[in-house]
Amino acid sequence: MRIDCPLCGSRDRREFYYQGAALTRPAPDAGEAAWDAYVHLRENPAGPVRELWHHEAGCSSWLVVTRDTRSHVISDVALADAALQKDQA
């Protein structure tokens, strides 16, 4: 599997470290139920998911990778700060 780092170009996935699902953090005053779901509840879908990856052996960027869990086909890669700020807007 290859990941197209926005800063370094196409790289083997062994340069990256998978960090989990790219979740949007609840607002500080969102309430106990929202924070409980954010911390403890995770889905395991078959299909496209957004994941957080760290380019550990490269530029050290944090990336949001959209990947299909059935085929490992990557449809989108974005720098995490830009992708997560867009989600909160």
- Structure class: alpha+beta
Report the count of strand segments: 6
Distance between the termini: 31 Å
| Main sheet record | 4 strands, antiparallel
**Main β-sheet, spatial strand arrangement:** 3-4-5-6
- Which consecutive residue ranges, at least 5 long each, have pLDDT under 50? none
Q: Helix segment count?
A: 2
Radius of gyration: 14 Å
Spell the H/E element sequence. Answer: EEEHEEEH
| Global shape | globular
Question: What would the average pLDDT be, to the nearest integer?
Answer: 91
Helix percentage range: 10-25%
Strand content: 35-45%
Keywords:
single chain, 89 residues, alpha+beta, 4-stranded antiparallel sheet, 6 strands
Outline of the structure:
With 89 residues, the protein is α+β, with helices and mostly antiparallel strands.
